[in-house]
Amino acid sequence: MRSVAMKRTSILITLSLVLLNAIELKVLWEFHGINGTIEDLKFSTNGVLGVASWDGCAYLISREGILLNKTCGSREVLGVDYLSGIFGFVNRSGEVYLIYENGTLLKSFESDFDRGQDIGLISNGFLICRGYCTLYDLNGRKKWDTFVGRQIVLRGRLVIGGRCVLRGGVEDLVIGKGYAFAANTYSGRLQIIRMEDGEIVNTLYFPSWVQGVGICGSYLAVIVNTKLYLYDVSDPSNPKMVWNVTGVNVSCNEHSPEFSMNCKYIAIPDEGNGQLKIYEVETGRLVYFKNVPGIWSVAWWRDRIAVGLYNGTLIMYRVTDELLDSPEAEVEPILLKLNEPIISLLGTLSLNFFKRVTSRRPR
Questions:
Q1: Torsions phi, psi of 67, nearest 5?
Q2: How would you label 266-280 residue by residue, b for 16+ Cβ within 10 Å and e otherwise?
Q3: Which of 12, 20, 124, 321 lies 20 to 30 Å from 76, alpha-carbon distance?
Q4: How many alpha carbons lie under 13 Å from residue 241 in its C-beta half-sphere?
C-alpha cells in the first residue's frame, strides 16, 4: 500500500511539474512611453489595450504596441474599463474620460476626489467609486449615490502601512449580473451593490486588505493580501466560496485578478513576490508562474497577457501551452466586467502576458 501511495504521489508531482513547464511566454513587444506606474489595464474585444497610469495619463495601445491615444488630466489615472467600443477612465480627482476604441475622445466629465478610484461601464452610463460609489448616465447626470467608506485618518494624517497610504474606500470594482462588486481595500470588505438602485445588499468581510476583484461568468475572484479567493456568484447577492489559496503577497493599491476568456484560468499580478501567477479555476491549483520584478497589473485577451510594471514599462506576451492549446477549442460565452453584453468567441486557448513599471507613486 505504501508503494502505491508513493507512486501516486510521484505521478501527481510529475504532472504538476509538466503543467508548470508546459506554458511558454514569448515577448511580442514592449512599450516604454509611459512615465508612471501602470495601475490598471483593460483589453477591448479587438485587443486594443487601455492603460491607466500614475503619470496622470490614459493611454490606448494597439495590438502591435502603437500608441493610439494619450489623454492627460490633473492627477493619477487609477481605473479603466471597456464596453462596446468605448473605454472609460477615471483619475484621482474624479475626472472621467470616455474614449472610442480608435482613440477619439467621446466625452469628459468632472466629479470629485471621493469618487475617483475606479470605473465600471454599463450600456447607458458609468459607475465610479472611492468613498462613494456613484452611477451617472452618459450625459453626466447622477442616478444614485452610495456611501461605501472614507479615508482612514489619524490625527490629521493618512495612516501609513509600509509603502502604502491607507486611503480607505474602494480600490477596485467590477460589474456583473446586475451588481457591482467593490473591493473596499483597507477596511477588508467586499461590498455588493445592486446596480438598479445603489443599495448595498451584502458585504463579505476578510481578515486583511482586499486588493482586487475580477469576474467571469458565475465566478468571482478576490485577492486579499496573502490569499486568492474564488466565489460562485450564480446568486450574485450571496456569493459562495469555492476555494481559497495562500502563497500570494500583495501589499497595497489595486492589483486586479484577470480571467482567461473561457473562465478556466485566473492570472494575478503577485506584486509582493514579483511574479505573474496563473491558477486553474476548477481546482485552485497554481499551473504557472514567472518572475517579473515590478509587476503591478495584468490583463488577458485570447492568447495574450499584458503586464504593467511599477516603473511604467508595458510588455505584451504571447503564451503557448502544449497542454492547453487546441486549434478546435471553443471559447465559452462569458460575461465581461460590465454585465453588458454576453459575447461568444472562438479561439485557441492560450495565455497572454503584459508588463509595466512606474516611476512615481500617488500621494
A1: -70, 125
A2: bbbbbbbbebbbbbe
A3: 124
A4: 11
List pLDDT tens digits, range 164-185.
555 568 999 999 999 999 999 8
- Gyration radius of the chain over CA positions: 19
Q: So what's the pLDDT on residue 57? A: 97
Give pLDDT tens digits for 238-293.
Answer: 999 999 999 999 877 788 999 999 999 999 999 999 999 999 999 999 999 999 99
C-alpha–C-alpha distance, residues 36 and 231, integer Å: 33
CB neighbourhood size of 211 (10 A): 28
Beta partners for 95?
110
The DSSP symbol for 337 reads T
Rounded to whole angstroms, the Cα distance separating 134 from 203 reads 18
Looking at residue 165, its pLDDT comes to 52
Contacts of residue 59, defined as CB under 8 A and 6 or more positions apart, other chains included, come to: 33, 34, 50, 51, 53, 67, 69, 70
Give the Å distances, CA to CA, from 259 to 279, 354, 362. 9, 14, 27
- Strands, sheet with 57-61, edge to edge from the N-terminal-most edge strand: 38-43, 49-53, 57-61, 67-72
How many beta carbons lie within 10 A of that of residue 76, not counting itself? 23
> Torsion angle, CA of 209/211/214/220, rounded to 10 degrees?
-10
What are 353's strand-pairing partners?
317
Domain residue spans of the chain = 2-355
Grid coordinates given for 321 = 501551452
**Which amino acid appears at position 168 of this protein?**
G
Maximum CA extent, the chain = 71
- Grid cell, residue 35, equals 512615465
Question: Which candidate, 262, 265, 144, places its Cα nearest to that of 196?
Answer: 144
d(CA 114, CA 175): 19
- Rounded Cα distance between 223 and 248, Å, is 8
2-355 fold:
Methylamine Dehydrogenase; Chain H (2.130.10)
DSSP state of 359: S
93 residue type, one letter? S
Q: Which residues pair with 67 in a beta bridge?
A: 61
